[in-house]
Amino acid sequence: MNLEFGIFDHLDRNDLPLREYYEQRLKVIEAFDRTGFYAYHVAEHHFTPLGMAASPGIFLASVAQRTTTLRFGPLVYILPFYHPLRLAEEVCMLDQLSGGRLELGIGRGISPVEAGYYGESVDFQESRQTFAETWQIMKDSFSKKRVTVQGQYRQANDVPIELETLQKPHPPLWMGVSSLENAEQAARAKMNFVAIQRPSDMRARVERYKETARQNGGLDPKIKMGMNVFIVVGDTDAEAQRLADRAYKVWHHSFHYLYHLHGRSPVRGERADNFPDVVQRELGIAGSPQTVLDVLSRRMEESGSNYLMCQLVFGDMTLAEALHSIGLFARKVMPELKAQVGARVMA
After folding, report:
1. Residue 310 contacts by C-beta under 8 Å, 6 or more apart in sequence?
2. CA atoms within 13 A on the CB side of 314
3. Tell me: the pLDDT tens digits for 235-270?
4. pLDDT tens, 14-46?
5. Nearest-CA neighbor of 230 among 281, 293, 284, 292?
């Protein structure tokens, strides 16, 4: 198994003025580019401090100009919020401007509060149909010169297409997976996937994906099956844990802000409100390079994942704190972890 490393970023708010905030985050992303990460994935959220990339494409256009090899993309574009033809054109432009480095995450969205603000239905069946029709029009526009789709919620009537993606037939696709059924859907669509699950639960999704892929033409060796993990690295365990505890509390407030404003809990339940509980639930780790390496080595082996999606920057981390943690991870954890995983495959 060839292990790759990616980044997941909510782009959650801190106390900096927005202009300075964006500039500092772009400097962090330049560090990801320099240190060998495979891809940078940014969330889309609206009207909440959880996500300052309300228009992922605009932010990612800056990422394209500030990086050279790092791949990047939304995780995910919330398709019911977009006109499909407009979004397809944006995807084409990003893929061309980046020299074919776009990774295309698509989904229905997870927040009924955000959907309600946009006037979108929170009904599961309706949003699923809107998603399907939006994606059908987008997919056709990537492969045809004229597009006609007459759906219940989205339509295109003999639309001439001028823009095209650099990657054919379109950029690699990604989806977020929560259930085993989601893993099957991703496999049938030949999509990469990421899940926020403890390693044993991740293993079940990896195995279900592989089984479904084999039943539908075989498993593409390029497919990435990613496990998302909060990671903070410091010179000592105590230093890393202090930073993680402080920054996570800020992230936690942002994550729950919009739900609590409406007197409800997140769709998949309340998150742990302190970082030691995140570690206990096997969804994060903070420590020295050796501690982080030891823990991640065990977790990656148990999960069966071939893609570690790292949440390395969150909450009120300063630029200096983030760069120090990223540097330690890139120099002292990534190479060793990649070698260990490769050695186990060869054994």
Report:
1. 5, 6, 7, 8, 37, 229, 231, 329
2. 29
3. 999 999 999 999 999 999 999 999 999 999 988 889
4. 999 999 999 999 999 999 999 999 999 999 999
5. 284
How far is residue 25 from each of residues 5, 54, 312, measured CA to CA in Å? 18, 15, 12
Residue 214, SS3 per DSSP: helix
Q: What's the DSSP call for residue 81?
A: G
> Is the four-CA dihedral 43, 26, 174, 196 of positive or negative sign?
negative
Q: Does the bond joining 42 to the residue before it have cis omega, within 30 degrees of 0?
A: no
The CA–CA distances, whole Å, from 162 to 135, 143, 188 equal 18, 11, 29
Q: Which residues in the chain show pLDDT less than 50?
A: 346-347
Q: Give the predicted TM-score (pTM) of the model.
A: 0.96
Q: Quick one: which H or E segment has residue 4?
A: strand 4-9
Rounded to the nearest angstrom, the gap between the alpha carbon of residue 77 and the centroid of all alpha carbons in its chain is 10
- Is the separation of the CB atoms in 39 and 5 below 8 Å? no
Q: How far apart are CA 148 and CA 158, in angstroms?
A: 5
* Phi, psi dihedrals of residue 307, rounded to the nearest 5°: -145, 120
Helix, strand, coil percentages, rounded to 5, for the chain: 50, 15, 35
**Residue 80: CA count within 13 A, CB half-sphere:** 27
Q: Which residue has the tokens 């801190």?
A: 14
Of the chain, the end-to-end C-alpha distance in Å amounts to 11
Length of the chain: 347
